[in-house]
Fold:
Amino acid sequence: MSEKEKDSGSSESASGKNKRSVRIRRLIERKMVESWQNKPHFFVTIAVDMTDIIRFRKDLGVTINDFILAATSEALKEHPWVNSHWIDGEAVEQAQISLAVAVATEGGLYYPVVKNVEQLSLRQLSQSATDLAEKAHLDQLSADDQEGGTFTISNMGMLGVESFAAIVTPPQAAVLAVGTVRGEVVVDEHEELVVAPMVRLTLSADHRILDGA
Structure:
């Protein structure tokens, strides 16, 4: 193959990826506009001490985000109404917990889905999330990899963002936005001032399905 043909092939490949990126952006745009216009959002934020999580993470060799996914799964088991879809004017609880995890790539933002999280161990969950993120960065996600999400998690902590509010992905009931972990002065159980690693979690929810109080 000549250099010209190689260059042509590379250009066509890049062009194809660019077109996919544009389609992805347009699809996300349509979904987000639809959600913001049609879903009555409300937002709640909580600050969480990550001291124990950071220690356990090092021992187990998993990420902070893996713990957040696992904790989210447990919370959805306890509050199944949050794991609902809004379908034909009513909330429908979903039998399985499948977490859509936002992954930012050069080609755009993807939401690969870790399916049936309630059946996975922490290590299995971690491996599945890692595999899907790698496929996203390689532009190798299948349609099935991106379907079936019942709840979404968006983590911008690696960008240094302290907190933010995400838009709920239709037809889901809610999305969890995860900020960066940073040292903050807090009062410990002995009523002493200490510096603890804190993270802010913001839940954006569809008020038609969930109540704010």
Summary: The chain has a mean pLDDT of 89. The chain has four helices and eleven strands. The helical segments are 3-38, 51-60, 64-78, 122-137.
